[in-house]
Amino acid sequence: MRRNRPIHPLPLRITHWLNAIAIITLIGSGWEIYDASPFLPFTFPQWATIGQWLGGAIAWHLAAIWLLMLNGLAYLVWGTASGHFRRKLLPVTPRAVLRDVWAALRLRLPHEVGAYNAVQRLLYLGVIALGLLAVLSGLAVWKPVQLWLLSDLFGGFFDSRVVHFVAMAGISAFLIVHVLLVALVPRVLPAMITGGRLPAPLTQTTEAAE
After folding, report:
1. Among residues 49, 42, 45, which one has the least CA distance to residue 25?
2. Residue 91 preceded by cis peptide, ω within 30
3. What is the pTM of this model?
4. How far is CA 163 from CA 8, 49, 60, 137, in A?
5. Cα torsion at 11, 17, 19, 23 (round to 10°)?
6. Span 123-176, pLDDT tens digits
7. I need a surface site. Which of 1, 56, 73, 87 has the fewest CB within 10 A?
8. How many H helices and E strands in the chain?
C-alpha cells in the first residue's frame, strides 16, 4: 500500500514563513536600534532598517520578538512531538559533515527533495541555537534590571548587547546562505509553499523522507 505524503507538512510551512517574517523584521528594526547607539565603527544604511527612528524600531522589534517566540515555541513543540527533528535533523556527525562539505566543494553534493544532507542538518540545528541565544540575550538587553540574573549570565548589559548582535549576525549569515541555496536549486521552493507530494511506501525509508 502506498500513499502520497507532503514533502513539507503544513505546520512546518506555516512556522517557516512566520519565522521568516519575524526574523526579517527583527533584523531590520535591530539595525535601526543599533544605529541609535553603535558600538562598532559602522552603521547600517537607513533604507535597510525598519522603524525609521528609535521609538518606531523598538515597537517593531518588540512585536516581532513576540511573534518569533510564540511561533518558535510552536515549531519546537511540533518538531519534537511529531518526530520531525529526530527524522530530519539527527544524527549529525563530524565525519558526515566533512564528507558533504568536500562533496559540495567539488559540486558533487546531491540534493534530494525532502531530505537534508549533513551540512543542512548542521546549519538548521545551528540557527535554532542562535535563535534561542538571540532571544535570551535580547531579553537581557530589554530588561537588564528585572532579569538581572540573565543579564549577569551574559556578562552585563553591554556584553549582552554584543552577544545579541553576534547571534543576529549569525542568523543573517544563515539567511544569506539559505537564499543562495534556494536560488541554486529553485525546484525546492514550490514545495515549501504548497507542501508538494512525494510518493512514499509505508516503510522505514519512506518515513525518513517525511
Report:
1. 49
2. yes
3. 0.84
4. 33, 20, 20, 6
5. 180
6. 899 999 999 999 999 999 999 999 999 999 999 999 999 999 999 999 999 999
7. 1
8. 9, 2
In angstroms, rounded to a whole number, what is the distance separating the alpha carbons of residues 81 and 97? 26
Q: What cell does 201 get?
A: 511506501
Query: Which of 16, 5, 4 is CA-nearest to residue 193?
Result: 16
3-class DSSP state of 4: strand
CB 12 within 8 A of CB 207: no
Q: Say how far apart CA 14 and CA 18 lie, in whole Å.
A: 6
Place of cell 559533515: 97
Instruction: Count how many Cα atoms sit within 13 Å of the Cα of residue 6 in the half-sphere of its side chain.
Output: 13
Q: How far apart are CA 200 and CA 210, in angstroms?
A: 9
Question: What are the two backbone dihedrals, phi and then psi, of residue 5, each rounded to the nearest 5 degrees?
Answer: -120, 150
